[in-house]
Amino acid sequence: MTQSVRQRPQIMKLTDAAAGRVREIMDRADKPVVGLRIGVKNGGCAGMEYTMEWAEDQKPFDEVVEDKGVKVFVDAKAMMFLLGTEMDYQTSTLKSGFTFNNPNQVSACGCGESVQLKAVDAS
Predict the structure, then answer these.
(1) Can you give the pTM of this predicted structure?
(2) CATH H superfamily, domain 12-117
(3) Helical (H) or strand (E) element with 22
(4) CA-to-CA distance for 118 and 104, rounded, in angstroms?
């Protein structure tokens, strides 16, 4: 009897627009960076906020996502909140920026700066 190996789900994926914008900004960075670190923190009126910062190196418990030529390092504490998330980059007349299509998002505040997230059920 052979045992099947279960594939680990990809924590996040990027749209073409998001990957292109990350590459464009990385090319103009003042110091060498290896990718983008994404996480979540408590804050905002809805309870949590996404965090993004340039990664100069990989931290011991980071989950590394390579998508469309871009490396994203997902903070270990954020993995259960970001599983299945798609990161996009959108431009409109009034603003442009990264957005997150997160299946774990329960609600968001009116200004869109903070969200309420539930952890993925690991069972």
Answers:
(1) 0.78
(2) HesB-like domain (2.60.300.12)
(3) helix 16-27
(4) 5
3-state SS, residue 72: strand
Q: Which two tokens mark 91?
A: 């431009």
* pLDDT value at residue 30: 86
Q: Where are the domains of the chain?
A: 12-117
Which amino acid is located at 5 in the chain?
V
Residue with tokens 């059920």: 121
Q: How far apart are CA 85 and CA 104, in angstroms?
A: 8
- Tens digit of pLDDT for each residue in 47-96? 788 899 999 999 999 999 999 999 999 998 888 888 899 999 999 888 88
Residue 82: both structure tokens together: 């970001």
- 61's tokens: 């418990």
